Amino acid sequence: MQRNQKEEVQALQDTIYVLGGKWKLPIINSICNGNHRFKEIQQSIPGITSRMLSKELKDMEMNNLVKRTEDRDAEIVIIYESTDYCRSFGPIISEMINWGKSHREHIKKQKEKA
User: Fold this and answer.
1) Cα 60–65–66 angle (5° rounding)?
2) CA distance 59 to 19
3) Verdict on whether the full-model pTM lies above 0.85
4) Most buried one in 3, 38, 96, 107, CB count within 10 A?
5) Distance from chain centroid for Cα 3
6) Signed CA dihedral, 7, 9, 13, 16: sign only
7) Which residues contact 73 (CB under 8 A, 6 or more apart)?
8) Is the pLDDT score of 51 beyond 90?
9) Angle in degrees, CA 82, 87, 88, rounded to 5
10) What is the pLDDT, as a whole number, of residue 47?
11) Dihedral sign, CA of 2, 8, 9, 11?
């Protein structure tokens, strides 16, 4: 394998490590669409448990994808926001959404032909 290919594979593996799994991209999408409180994020993602959301948010905070802040005005409110670093991935997420929609239509047409 050429050195450039090896570096590309490693870069892909790094990306998958940080963003892989069932929940990280839906969490990023939820936060970027205006859901900043834990319950808002959880309610916007069908099937995610509070335990899994908590685990993923901690992991994402560690990787500088989300910023966790406490608002202590009247009560303690935890706010999650995407970081600039996370938002740099936004165009890729949009393309993934577009590809997913296209793929769903492609599969639907294939089933109709069969």
Assistant:
1) 80
2) 10
3) no
4) 38
5) 30
6) positive
7) none
8) yes
9) 150
10) 97
11) positive
Handedness of CA 50, 43, 80, 70 (dihedral sign): negative
CA atoms within 13 A on the CB side of 56: 22
pLDDT digits (tens, 9 = 90+) for 12-26: 898 888 888 999 999
Largest CA-CA distance found in the chain, in angstroms, rounded? 60
Place of tokens 């834990």: 38
Buried b (16+ CB within 10 A) or exposed e, 83-94: eeebeebeeebe
Q: What residues pair up with 69 in beta bridges, in sequence order?
A: 79
Tokens of 24: 């990280």
User: Residue length, the chain?
Assistant: 114
Q: Is the pLDDT of residue 1 over 70?
A: no
